[in-house]
Design goal:
Blueprint: H1 17-31, H2 36-50, H3 59-68, E1 72-74, E2 84-86, H4 88-108, E3 124-131, H5 143-154, E4 167-172, E5 177-184, H6 197-214, E6 219-225, E7 229-232, H7 249-261, E8 267-274, E9 280-283, E10 286-289, H8 296-311, E11 316-320, H9 325-338, E12 341-344, H10 350-362
Parallel strand pairs: 5-6, 5-8, 8-11, 11-12
Antiparallel strand pairs: 1-2, 3-4, 6-7, 9-10
């Protein structure tokens, strides 16, 4: 388990040790990019060091329960091929686990970040009330305040409820949104002993679970970019790994805009998680690469796409998980060219920033 240290681990729920071990196993499975055997090997090593289990329930029992409960499948064959694989149930469980983790961060964070002040016909209540107007939905009527107004205006002896007595809740407008999430999988995402790719894919899993379960009319497409860019399915997120790649931001942006052109929603946006500057573009069938400084050819291509996205009314929000002044300078130029936004986030705060920004953008109504 090179590079990882686990301490103060203890099974707190003695009545259901499986659930406690499952939480830890999910974390390990994300770190190992879905490699069940490696995750179980890590879990066994942690158990030996921290004595998570006892004679009544051991790791072997846990593995059998994983199979019996449908979280993993054993596809091993007599010729040595195959092995244990995560099931669809496990993939869904990983996304829900990631979503719960992100919301735990939000509950602990300071309220009020990135909130919009615009109100209108929407579906999320604010704390404000307004007089009823023609066209307001009846389910937005505040019953208690409306009855209170009727008592004041007409008295109890001649009680009646008129339109002038009615008050309705102000609501935020929840626009339908098409989002493309770009994830940098260049080699720098694991350089210098810092794992940046695992928090990125956990946030992507959580965001996909939020959208698919709570905002069914929204769309989320996920692409990864290194030397090239390609689209991945939501189910592939736990297995995402960093490659020996440079950073071809241009390829990622081109693919993202092509995807959004096909979406019918008026509200479109790109969210990009990266830790570095663009270092690669493709010229014909060959790659032009330069990892030193800000290469003018690569920079100009990247900035021109930022401008193109702005003209298409596609804002780009960049989540930079590095704070090198040289990189910050590039992101500032890129953000100004697109008229978008940039956040310089720690790995721990990445989920909070992305979720708050997504919610704010949903409340913006574009004509």
């Amino acid at each position: 388990m090179k590079g990882w240290r686990f301490s103060s681990l203890k099974i707190t729920n003695i009545h259901d040790p499986f659930e406690e071990l499952l939480k830890l196993f999910k974390e390990l499975l994300i770190h190992t990019a879905g490699d069940v055997s490696e995750a179980l090997s890590w879990l066994t090593a942690i158990d030996k060091e921290h004595k998570l289990t006892d004679d009544d329930y051991g790791i072997a029992d846990f593995i059998q329960d994983l199979i019996d409960k449908g979280y993993i499948s054993d596809t091993s064959q007599g010729n040595g091929t195959g092995g244990m694989q995560p099931t669809k149930k496990m993939e869904i469980s990983l996304r829900r686990h990631a979503l719960d983790d992100i919301f735990d961060q939000l509950k602990k964070s300071k309220p009020g970040k990135h909130n919009t002040k615009s109100t209108g016909h929407g579906d999320e209540f604010t704390s404000e009330l307004k007089p009823f107007e023609f066209g307001d939905k009846l389910d937005k009527i505040s019953i208690s305040e409306s009855l209170k107004n009727a008592q004041i205006n007409h008295g109890l002896d001649n009680f009646k409820l008129t339109q002038d007595d009615l008050e309705v809740h102000e609501t935020f407008y929840q626009s339908q949104t098409s989002t493309v999430l770009m994830i940098d999988i260049s080699h720098s995402m694991i350089l210098y002993g810092e794992d940046r790719i695992t928090p990125a894919k956990k946030v992507a899993m959580a965001l996909s679970e939020l959208i698919t379960t709570r905002y069914a009319k929204d769309s989320l497409d996920i692409i990864v970019f290194g030397n090239d860019a390609w689209q991945i399915d939501i189910k592939d997120l736990p297995y995402l790994e960093v490659g020996p790649y440079h950073t071809n931001t241009v390829a990622g942006l081109e693919l993202a805009m092509n995807i959004l052109r096909k979406r019918k929603n008026k509200n479109k946006q790109i969210m990009m998680i990266t830790d570095g500057k663009p270092t690669c573009i493709k010229k014909g069938k060959k790659y032009y690469k330069n990892a030193f400084g800000l290469d003018r050819k690569i920079l100009n291509r990247t900035l021109s796409l930022a401008v193109k996205a702005r003209k298409l009314d596609i804002p780009i929000t960049t989540f930079m998980i590095a704070r090198d002044p040289f990189l910050v300078q590039f992101v500032d130029k890129f953000t100004r060219a697109n008229n978008g936004k940039a956040f310089y986030s720690s790995l721990q705060g990445l989920g909070e920033f992305i979720f708050m920004d997504y919610k704010e953008n949903k409340r913006k109504r574009r004509q």
